């Protein structure tokens, strides 16, 4: 927690990339189109594992404490990308120069400096440590990855996860699979039925975004390959194993619904333990119903907004609508599936009155169980330009946003990661329906 009344100084960078604080200006943050001083209660020390980014073509903006006026500096703006389990509550404040490049697909948090440390506008939303690798040597993880490739020489999926995801991109989920803990990733699809503006695995020709953070898989695994990875993980993570279809290195897993259904049925037929999870855009209601009947435990639905016109601006669905997303969740709930919303939180948009009203209505209709508060990774101005003709209103802040959801929907839980779902939750839900 930040000290009461703390006012961090503005952090800037010079052309050589040297980062320093400006003693004459205070840190300013941005929520949508609003520039303001951060509230003391939303400032936390920069979490371990976070990164600082220089923002090319963007001049830092701070506040002169003497005049109370905003001032644009001649130095580059600096932003923070916070470590997992934290959600940014405000973006960095800056003025963009003409012809500035579009920023890569990260979230750009407001950062300042006080009392010999960096502070960021963020909130820790999950105590789970599954993506904390402090104290685990990288050499150990790499050794485990190579051992798995030798142990499963014919399994293309295991090779993809170890070579591409662990050794090339240091994917936290794949690293955990190598270490035999927590949640195992199970990518299955080369294709997608949406064209998300901020897709991290594939950008269309002509996109303003210079590059995708990772490459999409170029094959479709077999049921046997998937089961081999699942059983390997079950033997190593014996407490609360989670197996997750739908990863950043693939398209939409529902485009392989038959493969998913066959794999889930086969694993459950052999009394496979743990949580089988699907990270999805929930675009195919009938397929979700089939997977629920096959033994799917949990569904995480990616959403930027519960307003169809806002949602579709970002996701750009090709053969489904937001109504299909709603129906998919209803179908999942009918089969006792635990449903999470992966709410891609964007300060100054997500936490406004029209967005909250639509979300509360959606939660009440679907009886969603859980909200994962993750930031939308995108150039803030690119996203705001997508929504330029939409009405949002002032930001209420993440704290008030969560309080109002809790009051209206007291059953909702919040977090960041996919929770392990006890088998008796699914069984008791199905028993009530029978």
Describe this structure in words.
- The protein has 434 residues and is α/β, with parallel strands linked by helices.
- It folds into two domains: 9-124, no CATH class; 138-433, Alpha-Beta Barrel (TIM Barrel), CATH 3.20.20.
- It is 31% helix and 25% strand.
- It has twelve helices and 19 strands.
- It has helices at 138-151, 156-168, 172-179, 223-236, 257-269, 285-294, 308-315, 322-334, 353-366, 380-386, 398-408, 423-433, and strands at 9-13, 19-27, 29-31, 34-36, 43-45, 51-64, 69-81, 86-88, 91-92, 94-96, 111-114, 117-124, 183-186, 242-245, 275-280, 298-303, 338-345, 370-375, 413-415.
- The strands form three sheets. Strands 1, 2, 5, 6, 7, 8, 10, 11 and 12 form a nine-stranded antiparallel beta sheet that branches. Strands 13-14-15-16-17-18-19 form a seven-stranded parallel beta sheet. Strands 4-3-9 form a three-stranded antiparallel beta sheet, with no helix packed on it.
- Strand 6 and strand 7 (69-81) form a beta hairpin.
- Helix 5 runs parallel beside helix 6.
- The protein is globular.
- It starts with 8 loop residues before the first strand and ends with a helix.
- Mean pLDDT is 93; it is low at 424-434.
């Amino acid at each position: 927690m930040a000290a009461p009344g703390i006012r961090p100084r503005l952090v800037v960078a010079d052309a050589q990339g040297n980062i320093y604080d400006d003693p004459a200006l205070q840190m300013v943050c941005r929520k949508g189109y609003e520039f303001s001083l951060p509230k003391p209660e939303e400032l936390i020390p920069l979490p371990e594992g976070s990164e600082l980014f220089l923002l090319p073509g963007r001049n830092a903006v701070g506040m002169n404490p003497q005049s109370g006026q905003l001032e644009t500096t001649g130095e580059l703006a600096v932003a923070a990308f916070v470590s997992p389990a934290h959600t940014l509550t405000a973006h960095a404040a800056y003025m963009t120069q003409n012809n500035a490049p579009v920023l890569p697909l990260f979230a750009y948090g407001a950062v300042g400096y006080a009392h010999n440390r960096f502070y960021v506008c963020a909130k820790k939303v999950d105590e789970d440590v599954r993506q904390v690798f402090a104290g685990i040597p990288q050499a150990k993880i790499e050794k485990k990855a190579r051992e798995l490739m030798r142990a499963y020489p014919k399994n293309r999926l295991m090779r993809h996860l170890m070579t591409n995801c662990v050794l090339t991109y240091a994917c936290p989920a794949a690293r955990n699979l190598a270490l035999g803990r927590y949640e195992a990733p199970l990518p299955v699809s080369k294709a997608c039925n949406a064209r998300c503006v901020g897709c991290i695995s594939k950008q269309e020709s002509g996109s303003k975004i210079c590059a995708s953070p990772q490459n999409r898989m170029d094959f479709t695994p077999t049921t046997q390959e998937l089961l081999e990875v699942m059983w390997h993980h079950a033997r190593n993570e014996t407490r609360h194993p989670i197996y997750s279809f739908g990863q950043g290195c693939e398209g939409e897993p529902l485009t392989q619904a038959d493969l998913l259904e066959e794999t889930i049925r086969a694993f459950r037929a052999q009394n496979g333990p743990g949580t089988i999870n699907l990270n999805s855009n929930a675009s195919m209601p009938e397929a979700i119903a089939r997977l629920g009947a096959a033994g799917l435990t949990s569904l995480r639905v990616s959403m930027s907004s519960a307003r169809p016109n806002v949602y579709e601006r970002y996701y750009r669905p090709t053969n489904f609508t937001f109504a299909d997303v709603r129906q998919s969740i209803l179908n999942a709930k009918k089969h006792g599936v635990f449903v999470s919303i992966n709410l891609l939180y964007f300060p100054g948009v997500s936490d406004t009155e029209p967005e909250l009203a639509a979300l509360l209505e959606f939660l009440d209709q679907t009886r969603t169980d859980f909200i994962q508060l993750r930031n939308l990774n995108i150039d803030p101005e690119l996203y705001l330009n997508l929504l330029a003709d939409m009405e949002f209103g002032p930001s209420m802040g993440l704290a008030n946003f969560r309080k109002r959801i809790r009051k209206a929907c007291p059953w909702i839980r919040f977090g960041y990661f996919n929770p392990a779902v006890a088998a008796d939750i699914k069984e008791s839900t199905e028993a009530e329906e029978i």
